[in-house]
Amino acid sequence: MREVKKHLILWGLLIRNSLMSQLEYRANFYSGIAMELGYFLAKIVYLLVIYQTNVPINGLTPDEVLVFFGTYMVATGPYAGMFMINLFGISHQVQTGELDLLLVKPVSTQFMLTLKRSDLALLTTDVLLGLAAVSVGLSRMAISVGMLDVLGYLGYLTSGSLIAYSMFLLPQVLAFRLVKTNALTGLVDSSWDFNNLPMGIYNRLIQQIGVFIVPIFVITNFPALFLLRKLSLLYAVWGIVGAIIWLFISSLLFQTELKQYKSASS
Amino acid sequence: MRKYYYALGLGIQETMAYRADFWLGIVSAVFPIAIQVFMWQALYQGVEGSHLYGRTHAQMLAYAVSASLLWRLLKTGFEYEINDDIKNGGLSKYVIRPIAYPSYRLSCFLGQKAAVLLSGIALIAVALLCVGLYFQASPVSLPRAVLFVPILIGALVLNFFIFFCVGMWAFWLSEIGFIFEAVRIVIVVLSGGIFPLEIFGDAVCRVLKLLPFNYAVGFPVDVLVGTASRSAILTGIMLQLFWIGMMILISHGLWNLGKKKYLAAGG
Known about the structure:
A: mainly alpha, globular, B: elongated
C-alpha cells in the first residue's frame, strides 16, 4: 500500500512537471488542442452521416450512437494524453539506451517507462469534447443521470482505461526483444478507431472477439452501455474482471520481456 | 535537369529502404475501411430506396475503399523535413548549391511515390474487385480506369504543392508542434478522404468542390468509381489543372517570402 501511495504521489509530480514543461512551450500546447479538434472533426463526420440518414444502426438510435461516440472521445483523452506518448516512446528508449537510467531508479520501471510523460492539452480537450457529446446525447433522449450512474460510468471508464493501457502495452514490450517497433506502433494505434462507432454495428462474431479475446470494445462501449442501462450482467462482470486479468498479464509479460533488454549505450 | 533525376532516384531508394513502413501504413487502412463497410451496410439496410447521397451501396463502398487507400498512397511527410531544414539550418546547403529547393523536394516526393504507385493502384484494383464480387457488378469500367491514371498523377502533384505551402509555415512559426498533423487531418476531411463531400449538404459541397482539396482525393475517386458525370469530369480536370497552377504560384510566392525570413541558425 505504501508503494502504491508513493507511486501515486510521484505520478502527480510527473503530471505537474509535464504541464509546466508544456506551458513553457505554449505553441505545442495550443497545437495539441488544434490537432485534437481536427481529429474530432474527422470523427464527427460519421455522426453527421448517421443523423442525416436518421436510421437506427442495429437498434441504436442516432442519439444513442452520440453517447457511444462521446464516450469514445472521453476514453481517447487518457489514451492519447497519457498512454500513447509513453508507450510509443519505449522503442526509442530501448534503441538509445535511455532505459538504463530508469532501471537504476528506486521506483517501478514499468511505472516510469509507461506513465512518465503526460500531455494535458490532448487529455483535457478530448475529455471535455467527449463529455459535451455524451451530455447532448443524454439530454436529447431525456435520460436523467443520478450519482450511481456517474459512479458506474467513471468505474467502467477506469476499467476500460486499464484494459487500453494493458492492451497497447503488450505490442510495445516486444521492443525489448526487437528494438525497433515503429511500424507495428502505427498499425496498433489505428486499431483504436474501431471504437469510433458502437460495437453494435459489427456482426456477432466480431463483437465476441472484440469483447472477450481482444477486448478493444470493452474500453469505450461498456461505460456507454452502462449509462444507457443496456449493459448485461455478463458484460458488467467481464468489464471489471477483464481489466484485472489484462493488467496482470501485461505486467507479467513486461517483467518477463524486460529481462531481454540489452543496454544499447556505452 | 540531371540533378533532379538524381533526386528522383533518391526518393525511390528511400521508399524501397523503408517499404515495410509504407505497407504497414497502407494496412492500417483496414480499420477505417472495416468501420465504413459495417456502417454503410447498416444504413443501406435501414434506409428507404437504394440510394444514399445519390450513390448505390456498391458505389458508396467503392468510394470508401478507394478514398481510404488513395489518401494514404498520396500522403506526404516532407513538410516535417522542410520544418527541420528551416529550424536547424539545413536549408543553407541548398541555398548555396545550384539546385532549387522546391524542385528538389518535388523530385524526391515523385520518386518516393513512383516506387509504390503501381503496387498501390494494383491494391485499389484488388479492393474494388472484392467490392465488385460482393455486389456481383463491377464498380469500375475500363475507360474510367484509364482516365483515372493521369488524374491520379495530377492529384499527386497537387497534393505535393498543397503540403509544400503548409511546410512553408515553418518560416513564420517558431514552434510547429502538432500544427501539421492538425492541418493534415482537416485536409483529409475536406478532400473527401473519409466520406464523399455530398454528406456536407448541397451548399457546403458546392463550395468545397471549388477548393483544391477535392481534386487530390474525392474527384479522382469519383472518376474511378463512375459517380462523376462526363461534364463533371471535364470541369474537374480543368479545376485540377487550375489549382495545380495556382498552388505552384502560391508556393513560389511563399518560398520567396520565406527565404527572406530565413536566419540560417545552426547547420
